[in-house]
Structure formats: structure tokens, C-alpha cells
Amino acid sequence: MMNNAINSLDKVDLLIVGSGAAASIIAAKAAQAGKQVLMLEAGPERSNKDLVSSQLWARRLKWGGSPVEEEGNLKIGHGFNAGWGTGGSSMHHYGVWPRLHANDFKIKSLYGKGKDWPIDYEDLRPFYDRVQSEVGISGDEKLEKWRPEGAAYPMPGLPVFKQGELIARGFTALGRDTAPIPLAVNSQPYKGRNPCNYDGWCDAGCPTGALANAQTVYLPQAKVAKANIIHRATVTRILTNQKGDKVVGVEYCDEAGQSHKQMADVVVLAAFAVENPRLLLASATQAQPQGLANSSGLVGKYLMTHPAGNIYGLFKEATQPYYGATGGQLINQDNYDDKAARKGAFGGYQWLIANALKPNGLLGIANTRPDIYGPKLDAFMKQAAKHMATMVFVGDDLPLAENRVELSPNKDKYGVPLAKVIHNVQAETDLMCQHAVEEGKAVFKAAGAEQVWSGPRVGMHILGGTIMGTSRDNSVTNRYGQCHDIPNLFIAGTGLFPSSGAVNPTFSLHALGLQAVEYLLSEWAGIV
Amino acid sequence: MNTTRRKFLKSSSLVLSFAVGGKTFLLSPAEAYAQSVPLAVLNESDATTLEVLAEAIVPGARVAGIRNFIDSQLSADSENSLLMIRYLGVPAPFAGFYTAALRSAEKLAKTRHQKHIAALNSEELSQIIDDMAQGKVKDWQGPPAEFFFFVLRSDAADIVYGTLDGFERLDIPYMPHIKPEQSW
Ligand SMILES: Cc1cc2nc3c(=O)[nH]c(=O)nc-3n(C[C@H](O)[C@H](O)[C@H](O)COP(=O)(O)OP(=O)(O)OC[C@H]3O[C@@H](n4cnc5c(N)ncnc54)[C@H](O)[C@@H]3O)c2cc1C
Ligand code: SF4
User: Fold this and answer.
1) What phi and psi values does residue A396 have, to the nearest 5 degrees?
2) A65: which residues sit within 8 A by CB, 6+ positions away?
3) I need a surface site. Which of A53, A101, A282, A343 has the fewest CB within 10 A?
4) By alpha-carbon position, which residue is closest to atom 4 of ligand 2?
């Protein structure tokens, strides 16, 4: 239970809520620039030693905070998609780091759908290039013919194993190409970090440093520059001045239930796409009764998740599906750019090809055929463990205001209303997904698979909810994640995306984070 | 710890803390089952139903220690739980999720065959499991039967296939960075 006595702590320059992907890059850069940085992290302290190679132990990396209520025909799967503890969800992320394409930034202008970004690809390109060099990405920009312009990858692509070769055969037979998947995973030693062992344990967290996540790249830099993290510190409220146009700090609750006020000149919300709007809505004051930074009425709205689904096949040949990285070996984006190409459908998609497979877990071999059980299961497992192959499509989600985070009447143990998330996909998204599944099955058949089937549609990644735009009429923040209503309150992470694109978002959120922190530092005097 | 014991833990699949007579021991669920470690949350009847269903769905689940595995995880707080249910959108605590469905399955056996689920022949049991998997059950309380089937099947697959022993059974390499032998 929360202890009502509030302990007020000394003011810091920059307070960041969360210690995940977005928090880590902002913390590192600000601390290196001499700012006193404090991250408040709701989850436990974790080090690489805790990343036990097991799909069972991996579950401890998943969200352990207040429950999120979900509704809709494509739930966002918050419990699966969100992480907690040092490094947040970046600790169980697979390091698939493609760039958004130019048309992703302009879907309103190009297709009359959803929202445009207040920036375009060329604005973000230099930040992608710099993050890529700092973090290290393996890939082959020449073979990846769909990739927008940018600096060459600093490392060659990761090797392709049997599973990838077999699926590539299907793409080739249909006159299509594949390229090494761009991965923030080292194909060779990079900046003091180890190369990958291709053992497929990425979901449990990579303790060797081969996979770039908050703990391998930016949190250590932040620490060296004297940034601090307080763990088990759950932020429960953002505090403003009376007028409600300036943030003064946050309230948080520690492990013992003691409540604290932590004051700061600038606050960055980097608590992921559901917790950020929840905190803004739950911090309503008399001056801002709709919630903080919400004069647009858009806080919580335009929540998105990438619709995704796997294709599976059994091959006569051995596929060695236990080798490689979990994110995959190859990529194809032939159906990415023309989002209106398919009749009645809207959205592009990509294929992430030949993901390393483990026998158990939600994405494991056993669960690909939940209809098999009893004595037949063992035979299936023995065959599939050596002869199975898979790939997954990741598609555009149409940004819709009615897909949203709102406050539930139910409260958590701190007395903060729970987040209630409503997310539905429309018929045009559904058709795009159906097209992808049919195409995927055709590829597997062309590759020579003896049995082919598809998995359920799922929500991959969480985006939107605190979108950026050009003004308070159309967005919560400006292009830097700075709230229109409260200039010393910033938001970081995928929640800023006004449209989803159909690529994995973590590279983009780093590029946005770098752009934001440089703006924040250069404009500091006028902001605080 | 003596060498044999260390060797056992090294080669074992999944080692958890089990409380026996006020003391805590590190055991694999299979070992806990073999030693009849007392249950903390489930009663004997629920545990029997659990292992009868799990064994029929994923052969090998019984001796892999499904009853002790689920029981130990139900006594952990949800943050430390190793059960897949923790990220499937079901609010913690999870004991009620399991016990409600297990009692519904037991009731179904009694209604249809006037026997405990553990006394059904394999054909009778298979029919009940088929119907659970397809949600074709009447008077079922608790989580939807097909969802419970999915979760229990995953739990059983976790301990039968998701361990060092399980990988060996499938003849595939485990290749761990950090072996799952330590207790967190
Ligand atoms: C299985 C899986 C695989 C993935 N693979 C990829 C991939 O290959 N490529 C890719 O681009 N993306 C991938 N992702 C997505 C990626 O993990 C996220 O996009 C990214 O981590 C989001 O970064 P973030 O900083 O916004 O949030 P997070 O990294 O989740 O950090 C948010 C942090 O805030 C903390 N927090 C929340 N609420 C509070 C509060 N009230 N007080 C204090 N702290 C709080 C949380 O505990 C958490 O640590 C994957 C995700 C999953 C689940
Ligand atoms: S496959 Fe590579 S990136 Fe993944 S956990 Fe193993 S070493 Fe790390």
C-alpha cells in the first residue's frame, strides 16, 4: 500500500520515466552534455547475468506492472509486448532494425488515410545514420534494394543457415528477392562487443552483448556520464505548476510503498506507448481537467499495433531451425511501398524470414499446431524441431482516433486508474493481412514445403497514443516529442509515431530520440 | 553442495525452489514429483485432474512434474511467475484460472461418465479433451475451455520440451549462454 507521507527530493536537471530503449539514448546524450540525469524505473534492476537462456525464464522480462485492460478485434498484447526492469522491452527485443520508408511519413498526403508526420524521411536520415554507426547494424544495403538511402551498414549481414536458404528458394522461384535482414546484432566484433553465436536465445535477452539493447549500448554510456537509475520506482503522477503550463517533477512510489516527489527542470516520459498516455490522463488537474498536455483531446488516441502473422512449413530437408537469431535471417519488402496496390486493402508489409525457433513458448514450435496433442504431438515435435521453417509478415496498421488508451474505472494498488486499451483493425487492413498470408503460403509451396500452414493474426509492437504533429490541433507533441501545451515535458518512444509504417520501430525511435535530445540540449535555456 | 548434486543440477532441466517442511530446496519439477513434494496451492484433487489432463495432452508431462511446476508457480507472485499465462491478459493471481477450469473438467467427467477424470479410459478422456479444445462443453465455469486447453498444453510443453532434457529428447542442441540451472 502507498504511504501517504511524501518525501521531497532534490531537483535534477532531467528526469526520465523509464529506462528502456528511448530513455537510454536520451539519458546518455544528456548526461554526456553535463546534465544531471535521473531515470525512474518501475521494474527491478537486472543485469546481463540474469538473462538465463530459457523460454521459461524469459517471461520474467515481461511486463510486471499494473494490468492493462484490453478490448477489440486485434488486441495489442500489452503483457507480451511490454517489458520492465532495467532496459525495458528492449531487453527481450530481437534487434530487427529496418528504416521507415519515405512514404510512411506521408500517408495522408499520398493515400488520404491516417496522418502525416511533421517530418519526412530526409529529416530523420542523418539520425538513422548516426545511430546505426553508434549501435552497429549488420546487413547488406546493396541486396536490400527496398531500403531508403542512407549510410552503408557498418557490419556485413549475418550468415544464412539452412532454414533461410530453403525459404529463399521459394522467393527466387516466384521471381522475388531476399536480402540479409538488417539486425542490430553483431556479425563481427563491434565497439568492444562480441559477435553473435547464432543460438537463437534473443527472446530471453542476449547476455553476450552481441544484440544491441539499452543495457549493451546507451545505459552503460549514461552510467559512465553519471546518470542514475532508481529501480522499483513507479511514477504515479506528473506534477505541474498551478497554471498547468509547466512540469515541476513527478510523484513516484518506491518498493516499500513510500511516496516521493522528485522535482526536475525537464521531464521525459519514456514509459512506452500505453503507460505514457495513462500517466498524462491520470495526472489531470483543475487547470488541465482532460489530462496533461491534452488540449488537443488526442492523448491516448491513434494507438496502433502492427498486424502480423507467421507462415510455417515442414520440409523434407533438415532446416536446422535452432540456428540463427530470433529476428530472422532474411528480409523481403516487395509489397511494402505501394500501400494501395491491393484491391480493397490498405497497407504495405514486409517478411522477416527464417526466425530461429525454440520448442516451447508462445512463438515456439509446439504452439504452431495447437490442434495436435496426445501421442501424435511427440512425433510432430521430433519432426518439426529439425524440419520446420517459418517467416512472419509485419503490416501497416491504419491510424484511427477510436483506437485508444483511456482510463478505466478500476485502479491499481497506488490508486491510479488502470489503462483500458481499445484496438480494432478495419476491413482494409484485414484484406492486406489475408493477401500477405496467401502470398506467404505460395512462397513456402514454391520452396518445396511438404506441409504449409499459417498462425493466428497477432499485434506486434505498440505505437501511437501520444502522436507528434505540426500543432495542437492535430497532435500532442511537436516533431521533437515536446508537448505543445507544456514545453518542458517531452515524450519519447514509439508513442510519438503518427502512423505505424510496417517496419519494426526501435531503430526509428532511437533516431527520433537522438533528434529530440539534441534539440532539448540546444534549446535548454528557453525550455526550462 | 556435493559433486553429484552439482552434476545433477548442471544436467537437469529446470531447477526451482520448493519448500519442504519449512526448508527450501532446489529441485527440478521432475525431482519434486518423484519425491512427492507437498503442494502449496493446489489441493490433491485439482492436482490429479491437472496431471491427468496434461499427460493426455502432452505425454511425459506427469513425470516431468507438471503438478509441482504449476503449483510452485502459482505460489510465486505474478512478477516472478514463469507461467505463460502472465502475459496472456489474464489478471493475477492465476490460481483461480486453473482451479475453476480443472473443477469444470472434473465435473464434466462426472456428468458424462459418473467417474472421476482420473478413472476415465483413454477414449473417454480423449473425447473430453477434444471437446475442451473445441469449446464444445456445457456447464463450464472459469476461463473458456479452449483457452484453458491452450494454456495447459503450453505449460506441459514448457516442461516436457522447453528444458535441457526436452531439447535432448528432440535431439537438438540447447546452446545456452547461461544455463537455466540457477534459482533467481
Ligand atoms: C518479443 C519482442 C521482440 C521485439 N523485437 C523487436 C525487433 O526485433 N525490432 C524492433 O524494432 N522492435 C522490437 N520489439 C519492440 C521493442 O522492444 C520496443 O519498440 C522498444 O523497446 C520500446 O522502447 P521504449 O523505450 O518506448 O519502451 P521500453 O523499452 O519498454 O521501456 C519502457 C520502460 O518504462 C518503464 N515504466 C513503465 N511505466 C512506468 C512508470 N509508471 N514508472 C516508471 N517506469 C515505468 C518500464 O518498466 C520499461 O522499463 C520487440 C518487442 C518484443 C516484445
Ligand atoms: S542468437 Fe546472437 S543475438 Fe541472439 S542471443 Fe544468441 S548471441 Fe545473442
Assistant:
1) -65, 140
2) A42, A43, A84, A234, A275
3) A343
4) A202
